[in-house]
Amino acid sequence: MNLLDPDNHWLLLRRLDGSALPASVHALSQPDVVDVLAPRADFRGALYQLLIGLLQTAHAPADMDDWHRLWRQPPDAATLQAWLAPLQPAFELDGNGAAFMQDLDPLTEAKDNSTADLLIDRGSDSNLFFNKQPGSWQGLCPACVAQALFTLQINAPSGGVGHRTSLRGGGPLSTLVLPANAEATLWQKLWLNVLPQETGDEAWRQPAPLAASLPWLTATRVSDKNGVETRPDDVHPLQAYWSMPRRLRLDETQTQAGQCEICGQPHEQLYTRYRTRNYGTNYTGNWLHPLTPYAIDPKHVKPALPAKGGRAAGSYQHWLSLTFGEDDSMKVAAVVSDFNRRDGKADCLCERGEARLWCFGFEMDNMKARAWHDSTLPLYQPVSHDERRFAQAVRQVLGVAEQSASLLGEQVKLACGSSKKEPAVEQSFWQHTETSFYAAVQQLASLPQLEDEHCVPAFTQWLKAVRSQTLNLFDRWILNAPVEEMNMKRVIKARDELRRGLWRAKPHKQMEQMIKQFSGEAHEAVSQ
């Protein structure tokens, strides 16, 4: 099976009318195709990354003009086939030579495992369905095993001695820019995340053998005691899309007919076993994957740290760091900064370039998958084009939210006489104030000027909403608690302390002082 064969309809795509279309990769630019379908959420995220990686590798636009041209007039199937033809020999799934996402060495003497172990959540409590007893596993069809291989390699968690993590560490966060329009084509969703060559440094534009980008085409850079580490300068930067830390090889001698354990479809060739060996490629140094945000060392001594999948579960509390960054400590994904740049991709979407940021990834506890997180955040482009002031204003809004959530958690704890906070209390704050937060951010983004006096209306509405919602949530949590456990004196004291904090905490007080300064007197609803 070759993943780039025009006659191999291994993908399942969704049309605008909701119907499913079995298709090859050459159908991704069809005007009626709007999404990728997959039997697992992690596979869907991986397939988007695979298709983006293919476009970036096969035909990266030279500059923004080139990018705009292909946005307006997507390639047809024949053009896509011509782009991908040089890569096609590298995308064989099996055979004696190079095989997609597998070690060039056949690993004939290596350990033999069930293909169930290719699933990251295998053996964890987050997906008990796949924790089957030995002997009951029928295997994976070629399409699903290809998705499993790619998903594991780009997300690989720690796997024991010498079993390397992915280029972004175990369970990385991926962030993709998508059009807000639900009817946007799949081509638009993918192309928004393809970077013009002018965006990267000179290394991205340097010609190199294909094996420098696709590591399965050459001998593995083994990382045992006599081996080597793999830094960005050792290979082509495109290898970030195709990183291969695990040494794996499908066992073609152990296949059988049956029903695929993932997609449920009957197939004559289900892969049941694969071989593996430790000490594969060890990616070290300052790798920056284009789809992942990074925490930056202010002193620029230590390598940047990739954000992890758990951040996709953070509601709006991580919105600023994922969309515009946090000062010098958090760098957004390259595809996000490319979208944000002036006179860039945002202008293709609508008047103000509204879009969505799709965030997803595994939350890992070493080898165990605790959860898969998948969320979508709105992206706003400030009309003022003053990203610095816009980020400062949003940071003030978030400062009020963070302090309010903490106050709520603490005072509910004291009211209930508990020894520690209940995490669900603070989580409820983030959930119930999300609409008000995005209303404030959208209002700030629409301002032609972002000096303090222009931000006052948005701040006024936000402060009023937060104070009201926080007190309401306190009452709701207390009313839901068992009556026999309630001490009313303790409850009244805790509510008074919460109210006092919502007026006297530093971020609240600073915001109210600004409102007073520029509106002449405190807004009545805010002051009360």
Key features?
CRISPR-assoc_prot_Cse1, 528 residues, three-stranded antiparallel beta sheet, 15 helices, globular, Topoisomerase I, Chain A, domain 4, 2 domains, Type I-E CRISPR-associated protein Cse1/CasA, alpha+beta
Describe the structure.
With 528 residues, the chain is α+β, with helices and mostly antiparallel strands. The chain folds into two domains: 284 residues, no CATH class; 145 residues, Topoisomerase I, Chain A, domain 4 (Orthogonal Bundle). Helices cover 35% and strands 14% of the residues. It has 15 helices and 14 strands. Helix 9 packs across helix 10. The longest helix has 30 residues. The chain is globular, with a radius of gyration of 26 Å. The model has no long low-confidence stretch (mean pLDDT 93).
Short synopsis of the structure:
By secondary structure, this protein is of the alpha+beta class. The protein is built from 15 helices and 14 strands. β13 and β14 (368-379) form a beta hairpin.
Uncertain regions spanning at least 5 consecutive residues: none
Summarize the helix and strand pattern as letters.
EEEHHHEHEHHEEEEEEHEHEEHHHHHHH
Q: What is the first-to-last residue Cα distance? A: 69 Å
How large is the count of helical segments? Answer: 15
What percent of residues adopt helix (DSSP H or I)?
25-40%
Mean pLDDT rating: 93
Question: What does the overall shape look like?
Answer: globular
What about the largest sheet? 3 strands, antiparallel
Total discrete domains: 2
C-alpha-based Rg, rounded = 26 Å
User: How much beta, percentage-wise?
Assistant: 5-15%
How would you classify the helix and strand content by structural class? alpha+beta
Identify the strand order in the major beta sheet. 2-1-3
